[in-house]
Amino acid sequence: MPLPKAELHLHIEGTLEPELAFALAARNDVPLPYADTEELRRAYLFDDLQSFLDLYYGLMAVLRTEDDFAELADAYLARAAAQGVRHAEIFFDPQAHTARGVPLDTVIDGLSRALNASQERHGVSTRLILCFLRDQSAESALATLEAAKPHLHRITAVGLDSAEVGHPPAKFREVYEMAAALGLRRVAHAGEEGPPEYIRQALDILGVERIDHGLRCVEDPELVARLVRDRVPLTLCPLSNVRLRAIDVLEAHPLPRMMEAGLLCTVNSDDPAYFGGYVDDTFHAVREALGLSEERLRELARNSFEAAFLDDDEALRQRYLAEVAAYEFA
Ligand code: HPA
Ligand code: ZN
What we know:
Blueprint: E1 5-11, H1 18-28, H2 37-42, H3 49-59, H4 66-82, E2 85-92, H5 94-98, H6 104-122, E3 125-133, H7 138-148, E4 157-161, H8 173-181, E5 185-190, H9 196-204, E6 210-213, H10 221-229, E7 234-236, H11 238-243, H12 255-260, E8 265-267, H13 272-275, H14 279-290, H15 294-306, H16 314-326
Parallel strand pairs: 1-2, 2-3, 3-4, 4-5, 5-6, 6-7, 7-8
């Protein structure tokens, strides 16, 4: 039985496995520039975040109908449950779909259908996080949040993703103010490829409660001290960092040092169909490569529930934490 955990950094579009991509391409009559799933998998040799994003946005062309989005999310939740995930907070990129002519309602209705059935079908509680594409304009982000207003009861938080360098958090001050006024929680990718300064901006200007990735905080001791003092959760994605060349090899990942320093770290899968593993695969990989003790692994699982947006159901959080405390490693 895998260690019970929450997944807090997961792009639903990044769970599109080659097999499902080809099935949807056939169903929707969308041409793909790959002969088969093997050839597609061979294209997964990324140099950096941008080379991954080019493929990731391209493959989304197969997602067209409400059923497509529901199937995608249900397939992820089934896999997540098998990996010990009890609670999943799921990112989606509305602008990547509306730009292709897929209505926002189609995306949210499809995803919500799978998420609403998840507790009963898979034993996984869920939250949905709407992400703005930071390489699009601030006006486009504002229009996206405006368009999402009829769906706010199904959205817990806003996030910020896509190409980081050259698109600092400060660019999105206004839309994050609007999100806060609407009662939404706030997170943002920062310090994946971008500098520590972007992490500071996400905290100071966007008012985020968690930093997605945050890897590059280790370059700035003062920032680390602040993140420790304020118990700001970091949603780290070690397999993603290796595949996108943020670090050379998993053995060089700073996770053990970060935990040692007192940072509130969580381990997540980011885009598991592309990066070679779902979240329990990631736990196993870091355990092997970094020699993490069982108590460190338990701490990561505990952190994931402590950092989760479960404030509206503290009893559920406590139940999950009790499961982590009682877990016996094989
Ligand atoms: N970083 C930024 N944008 C993304 C990522 C990521 O790791 N995955 C999907 N969109
Ligand atoms: Zn991400």
